[in-house]
């Protein structure tokens, strides 16, 4: 299952938060870093389950696009995404143009 969201955080901060979330906030089904770069992190969890999270600046501007893929950790991935602050929209007052 692939999930996607857009956040106002920079990509490296999204990946840092993903590592922390899956290592500490999901103790019964924690997942730990197997591979990573400045654009993605691959976590390995219980039973060898893989979670892949990619984060990249949106080409059209206005935040970071975050995509996550997993088979068994769908609920935990959704919970992680819910912790990310949304990107400000260009039409919202105070948003950067």
Keywords:
Alpha-D-Glucose-1,6-Bisphosphate, Chain A, domain 4; disordered C terminus; alpha+beta; globular; 97 residues; 25% helix; five-stranded antiparallel β-sheet
Which helices and strands occur, and which strands form pairs?
Blueprint: E1 2-7, H1 11-25, E2 31-36, E3 40-45, E4 50-57, E5 64-70, H2 74-82
Antiparallel strand pairs: 1-5, 2-3, 3-4, 4-5
Give a written overview of the molecule.
The chain has helices spanning 11-25, 74-82; strands at 2-7, 31-36, 40-45, 50-57, 64-70. It is an alpha+beta fold and 97 residues long. It has one domain: Alpha-D-Glucose-1,6-Bisphosphate, Chain A, domain 4 (2-Layer Sandwich). It has a five-stranded antiparallel β-sheet, covered by helices on one side. The radius of gyration is 14 Å and the shape is globular. 23% of the residues are buried. Mean pLDDT is 88; it is low at 90-97.
Distance between the termini: 33 Å
Averaged pLDDT: 88
Total number of distinct structural domains: 1
Helix/strand order, N-terminal first: EHEEEEH
CATH topology assignment: Alpha-D-Glucose-1,6-Bisphosphate, Chain A, domain 4
Q: What is the C-alpha radius of gyration, as a whole number of Å?
A: 14 Å
Number of helices: 2
Q: Which runs of at least 5 residues are low in confidence (pLDDT < 50)? A: 90-97
């Amino acid at each position: 299952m692939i999930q996607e969201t857009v956040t106002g955080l920079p990509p490296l901060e999204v990946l840092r938060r993903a590592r922390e979330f899956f290592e500490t906030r999901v103790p019964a089904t924690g997942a730990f870093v197997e591979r990573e770069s400045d654009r993605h992190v691959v976590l390995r969890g219980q039973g060898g389950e893989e979670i892949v999270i990619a984060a990249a600046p949106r080409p059209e501007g206005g935040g970071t696009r975050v995509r996550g893929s997993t088979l068994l950790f769908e609920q935990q991935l959704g919970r992680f995404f819910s912790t990310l602050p949304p990107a400000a929209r260009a039409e919202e007052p105070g948003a950067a143009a």
